[in-house]
Amino acid sequence: MKKKLVWLLAILLSFAMVAAACGDDDDSSSGSSSDSSSASASAGDPLNIGTLLPETGALAFLSAPLLEGVNMAIADINAAGGVNGADVTLTPGDSGTDPEIANTTVDRLLTEDVDAIVGAAASGITGSVIDKITSAGITQCSPSNTAAGLGTSGDDGYYFRTAPSDDLQAPALANVVLSDGYTNVAVVSRADDYGVGFNAEFEPAIASGGGTIVYNTPYAPEATSFDDVVQDVVASGPDAVVLVAFEEGIQILQTMVEQGAGPDAIQIYITDGMATGELGVLIDESNPGIASGMKGTQPAAAPSSGAAFFPEAFAAFAPGVSTIFSAQSYDCAILIALAAEAAGSNDSADIAAAMVDVSRDGEKCSTFADCKDLLAGGTNIDYDGASGAIDFLDVGEPGTGIYEVYEYDAGGVQEVIDELTFQSGSSAEVDPVAAGIARAQAVVDSFSEPPDQITVTESINSVVPEGKTVAWLACEVTCAAFNPAFEAATEALNWNLEILNIASFGANSSILTALDLGADFIAITGTPPATIADEIETMVDAGVGLYSCFDTTLPSELEGLMTNCSGNDNVFAAGSVHANNVIVRSGGTAKVLMVNIPDFAVLVSQRNGAAAAFEENCPNCTFEELAVSLDQLLTGEVPGAIISAFQADPDLNWLMVAFDGMLYGILDALEGANLDERISVSLTDHDAASLQECVDGRIEFGTVNPVLYTAWLMVDGMVRTSVGQEIPGNGHVTPPIPLFLTQTPESCQALLDTPEADWKGPATMEAQFSALWGRG
Considering the entire predicted model, what is its pTM? Predict the structure, then answer.
């Protein structure tokens, strides 16, 4: 759709509808009308079709698609011998964009004895004239009214429309949202018939598909600022926003961008009231790509189920004219003519009585000529037209809506990506596999790039004392990687550092040694607190704090003394991120074995996070744990146990490794057992060796947890304790550790090329922490 169409659609759809206007300002329409009228005058009582379309006013430039659709239909009808033995005539009329103009035109059309009227284009205009038209016993067919409820009562059976109602488009859009994996949805809609009516159909459709509406307060479209609206939307915590708006929607989108909730931060959907080819330019002329990823629906201009001849024929009949709603206007005129032919009468009451019958439950036909021949042979017909199957419901509107699903590309330009057919009475249903993958992808997208800010920002309120002593109890296997960060952090504070190497389950004596060394703070990781309960009691008595990472069971009596730089929620999330990327990478088909050491609470949390992700987002995946011990890891028995598990279950196709230190020997063992082609491997928490395996293509991906950053977080807890300040976060847990995913060999190589051969954390974390502590 051309850019200018959006505003036209927006205005046209006012009063609760998504519609477009049509009409042609040139003299050709009037000329063909008068010629047709004079030619048919001698035929006795020809079928006279009037139009009520916006030939003037703000929508005049959009009149061509609709009016040319009618003109083409009449040309095809008359080429096939006309209706009831005479050519059809056309009496055009202007609706403008004002009910007063429309009513004046209707008065004229009625005095000129039209038998049927094609129009109006806008639901609001139709609402202002429908009683006058139908009470006069004149058939009315709108090609573009979409407001739900129009003509369902009080029209005496004279009102019809070929555009599907919003009670079809709303659940169709809900289907798109749910299929994309979004279930917590904010609806931002106009406080008018269009917005409220659309939302009334959209909300139950989301609910029936298992979703939740977290925000649905309509806004005043005439407002000059939408700051409060956007703030309330953001506060509701949606994972997707549906914007039911016209031109004011651009200002809403701009406000969302200003508040950090634009299309680059949250998935946004729009309706056809805002659909335009170049939405990105309207949001931000200097950055049109801001609209990238936005999606929406609109009635299909040339649906695949429509009459095959129409797109090319219309282009030849009206070169250069937009196709928006042209198929629907063509079908209105054809249906009126077929109803008259079927009734054997041009009387409007007879036409209205036959409109539903010619659209359904008969032998299918798609041209006036073919349908007319069938009627002449006594055959009931089912006209499937340029806009697809009409299949009028008894109320005179399509029982099926055909919609284009569009998305904005990297340049902010609209691209049709799918066509969706939605039938009356259908509920919003989703493919559970596709929906799960979409949800998983949304999680993965949140961790696709390394963050650049530290996660603790609460300032220190007092001067940090110097000369404190930190004892760092470095566990065997992997904990030496923390050493450089402890050295740098304590140096920045002018504190002393003692490094004591320990076994994971042998920290008891080292804690006592640290106390003997005069430690003010003890840092430890990889040791369950329950195994050092007696020593912790001694520390409490001495007033020495224990600062830990990845130990998730915290004794309540250590209030203000012990902290974790990562609690259950954070480690659970790491497992979830890992598993969701497996879901995406496998296309929802992973049969997963996770090798894990359940003796460690942190690894149990990670396993639980992974299991929850598979259960929620991958109905076709399986997940099982291979539990091993620390002793098996240290003695090299883990690779053999893994091979045995894969050989025992040929359906398994993915290995998740709980942490980098467990990877050693596994890849070679898989190759030696000829399982490397069958089994994909991924892990939590890269080290230099695993990054090299990623570069070499031997593992699919890994999560990257910044070991150095976690050490700085532990020292931050000590700093706050030293000045009598509470550690920020949930209970004893400081803000979570940032992480991201390495998705390609190139991303792994980039980390290997750093001085640490790893991701240490946000690039300027040392300076950020030092400034936070007053040492910058």
Answer: 0.54
